[in-house]
User: Fold this.
Amino acid sequence: MKQTKTYLTMSIFLLLSLLSLLFYRTSAQPAAAPGPAGPPNITAILAKAGQFNTLIRLMKTTQVADQIDNQLNNSNSGITIFAPTDNAFTSLPSGTLNSLNDEQKVSLIQFHIVPNYMSTTQFQTASNPLRTQAGNAENGEYPLNVTSTANQVNISTGVVNATMDNSIFSDGQLAVYQVDQVLLPLKLFGPHVSAPAPAPAEEKKKKKKSTADGPSTDSDADNTDASTAGPTSDRSYMRMAIVGFISLYVYWGL
Assistant:
């Protein structure tokens, strides 16, 4: 009986020791490190900054926001975005946005996006014109020129001159800068001089014909009269000659 109690006591002791060891090892394991953060979301960044509701709406309706997120996921070159405030959109002439079709609205938003990351210091050595996602920066289409001083970055599109106010977000992959005006590209808002329409071919033919024919003159009339009178006079003389010849023949014959 005494021996049985001893075995039971030892078994309980070993069980408690095993449980204590297992609990210690579990609690001693370090917590799992959090996974790498995903790429930044442009609309979330703008919403957090405030005063960019119009830009957010346009990015969503044109699906440019999805294009930016995809590029951030699949490219290492990064993106730079110039973000006009709500006040900048309000300052546009009435009906400016409504005058654009869907394709032009896409180009307008893409004109605010440079397809590579640019820090504030890189603007000092940037080569103009900057290439944006809107397309061709030459030939008066979508040129974007920047000039930088120690304290300010100015942006010119050929239509407006804007100032970069401050940095909203920058992480080495995405840079978002606030600008005080909507960047209007020459392709959509510049002066367009249309060539004069050519004269209709039929009118040209009529003009050439009237020039060639021309109005009749007095000399033309005289020539016509002369040409008409010439043969008539000759026939009269011939009749007179024949009559005279016959008269002489009859006279001398008698």
Summary: Residues 216-229 have pLDDT under 50 and may be disordered. The first strand starts at residue 79 and ends at 84.
